[in-house]
Design a protein that fits this description.
Xdiol_ring_cleave_dOase_1/2, EC 1.13.11.2, 2,3-Dihydroxybiphenyl 1,2-Dioxygenase, domain 1, 307 residues, oxidoreductase, 8-stranded mixed sheet, binds fe (ii) ion, VOC_core, alpha/beta, iron
Length: 307
């Protein structure tokens, strides 16, 4: 049952060289730089996003994920979910409004998978980039690179997938849209939605807690994906897999790496999810088909390179 979580709102990602990272996320993927703060963090957004930003880059000695924030409907929902998390047994902390640029207070917790999540209700809304509020054009001029539309989802790897799935279902109101099930019926991958999307977050089993597999940005069409692949070659960016199609969610995809080694995805298409849909099930022994529907096997780098 839905509990008032609306969407993935932001992700804070560690990069090892900010200017190199900006060439990648801003100039190649096409996100828009909107601000920098006194901690050296740089804030970016996809052009269709109404909130001020969705990607926060912070310079660090190691790549990886600091946290993912989900936006909730309002402050009452935020207070209710904070209490529900505490009652469920989660350790919860809180950041004051303004600690992250133009964002209200944030309620933070660590999932059984080892990943840090936060909930927030307020962030400054600056509207779709370059478009008027009244009689808007369909897209703005002067977009760059892949012209990514929005930050869409993350796939995270860590232990305790069933416990993490239970937390997201029971406390946060997500639904299980697709799953990968081992021969003993253990869920080894859970694709979860708080919206109509095929997934807003996905968890895949691995022994190391808190790992980022990829952060994904939406493109509009398959043709845009082909041009994105051209851009990866033109810019000598390290590719992982694709363009190809997933079995899981049936989206079309390319994977590649940012200069610090964080895996990115750009994707388009795919399935949709309503809360009454039963989960789509894939067998772990058919994981090749589930992940890469055309190739039918898992590329060796795909499950091994994590940040
Ligand atoms: Fe993805």
């Amino acid at each position: 049952m839905r509990k008032g979580v609306i969407r993935p709102g932001h992700i804070q990602l560690r990069v090892m060289d900010m200017e190199e990272a900006l060439k990648h996320y801003r100039d190649l993927i096409g996100l828009i730089e909107v601000n920098r703060d006194d901690k050296g963090r740089v804030y970016l957004k996809g052009w269709t996003e109404v909130d001020k930003y969705s990607l926060v880059l912070v310079e660090s000695d190691t790549p990886g994920l600091d946290f993912i924030g989900f936006k909730v409907l309002n402050d009452d929902v935020l207070n209710g979910l904070k209490n529900d998390l505490i009652e469920y047994g989660c350790e919860v902390s809180e950041f004051p409004a303004g600690e992250l640029d133009s964002c209200g207070r944030r309620v933070s917790f660590v999932a059984p998978s080892g990943h840090t999540f936060e909930l927030f209700a307020d962030k400054e809304q600056t509207g779709k980039w370059g478009l008027a509020d009244i009689n808007p054009d369909p897209w703005p001029l002067n977009l760059t690179g892949m012209k990514a539309e929005r930050f869409d989802h993350c796939l995270l790897m860590g232990p305790n997938v069933p416990a993490t799935q239970a937390l997201f279902e029971q406390v946060l109101g997500f639904g299980l849209s697709e799953q990968v099930v081992a021969p003993d019926n253990t869920v080894v991958a859970a694709f979860m939605s708080c919206s109509l999307k095929a997934h807003d977050i996905a968890f895949v089993d691995c022994p190391d807690p808190g790992k980022l597999h990829h952060v994904s940005f939406l493109l509009e069409t398959w043709q845009d994906l082909l041009k994105a692949a051209d851009l990866l070659t033109m810019t000598e960016t390290t590719k992982d897999v694709g363009p190809t199609r997933h079995g899981l969610t049936s989206g079309q995809t390319i994977y590649f790496f940012d200069p610090s080694g964080n895996r990115n995805e750009v994707f388009c298409g795919g399935d949709y999810y309503y809360p009454d849909h039963p989960p789509v099930t894939w067998k772990a022994e058919d994981l090749g088909k589930a992940i890469f529907y055309h190739e039918l096997y898992i590329h060796p780098t795909y499950l091994e390179v994590l940040t």
